[in-house]
From TrEMBL:
This is Riboflavin kinase. InterPro entries: Riboflavin_kinase (IPR023468), Riboflavin_kinase_bac/euk (IPR015865), Riboflavin_kinase_dom_sf (IPR023465). One of its GO terms (molecular function) is ATP binding. The lineage of its organism: Eukaryota, Metazoa, Chordata, Craniata, Vertebrata. SUPFAM superfamilies: Riboflavin kinase-like. Catalyzes the phosphorylation of riboflavin (vitamin B2) to form flavin-mononucleotide (FMN), hence rate-limiting enzyme in the synthesis of FAD. Essential for TNF-induced reactive oxygen species (ROS) production. Through its interaction with both TNFRSF1A and CYBA, physically and functionally couples TNFRSF1A to NADPH oxidase. TNF-activation of RFK may enhance the incorporation of FAD in NADPH oxidase, a critical step for the assembly and activation of NADPH oxidase. It comes from Xiphophorus maculatus (Southern platyfish). Residues 1-132 form the Riboflavin kinase domain. It catalyses: riboflavin + ATP = FMN + ADP + H(+). Pathway: Cofactor biosynthesis; FMN biosynthesis; FMN from riboflavin (ATP route): step 1/1.
Length: 170
């Protein structure tokens, strides 16, 4: 995928209460302005990379890019599970993420709930290992993550494409 690594940033918005948190796998949702800016070659699937909240520490993450059933699968969503235990929710804060690599996409919709949780947890374990490889771990140190104080979140669709190209051309 030529668009990887892909950098993105936006405000954490509420998802659609699919209860990820109850499953032990909360997923922070990006707003449409970020989702709509995804390059065409970033297809639906599971990605791994790095993420931080505000100016906080950079942690490993796994992200699901998928079709949103709430909108009858006409809209995509980007849901990020940060591999860290946070004391509090962070709705409304800025999430910065870099997508480093993609898993071969699984047909998750065919799985039972228990198998789905097991599949996601095995993806998380795999991501933890893969992200230690130099080609992925170097992104943790990228200055994208230290520049959050200087740039506002991508919050409007008109500003988004310019901001996105600045972010990825940094
Ligand atoms: P929603 O449907 O609103 O996305 P979730 O059950 O998926 O609800 O929970 C997501 C929220 O949980 C995030 O927006 C964030 O505020 C919080 N959260 C706490 N810990 C994490 C984490 N490790 N990764 C992602 N989100 C987390
Ligand atoms: Mg969620």
């Amino acid at each position: 995928m030529k668009s990887l690594p892909y950098f993105c940033r936006g405000e954490v918005v509420r998802g659609f209460g699919r209860g990820s948190k109850e499953l032990g796998i909360p997923t922070a949702n990006f707003p449409d302005s970020v989702v709509d800016n995804l390059p065409a070659d970033i297809s639906t699937g599971i990605y791994y990379g790095w993420a931080c909240i505000g100016n906080g520490d950079v942690y490993k993450m796994v992200m699901s890019i998928g079709w949103n059933p709430y909108y009858k699968n006409t809209k995509k969503s980007m849901e990020t599970h940060i591999i860290h235990k946070f004391k509090e929710d962070f709705y409304g804060q800025t999430l910065s993420a870099v997508l480093s690599y993609s898993f071969s996409s699984l047909f998750l919709c065919y799985l039972s709930p228990d198998d789905l949780i097991a599949a996601i947890n095995s993806d998380i374990e795999e991501a933890k290992v893969q992200l230690e490889l130099p080609e992925h771990s170097k992104l943790k140190e990228d200055n994208f993550f230290t520049s959050t104080t200087n740039s506002s979140p991508v919050s409007s669709s008109s500003a988004a494409s310019t901001s996105q190209s600045i972010i990825n051309g940094h």
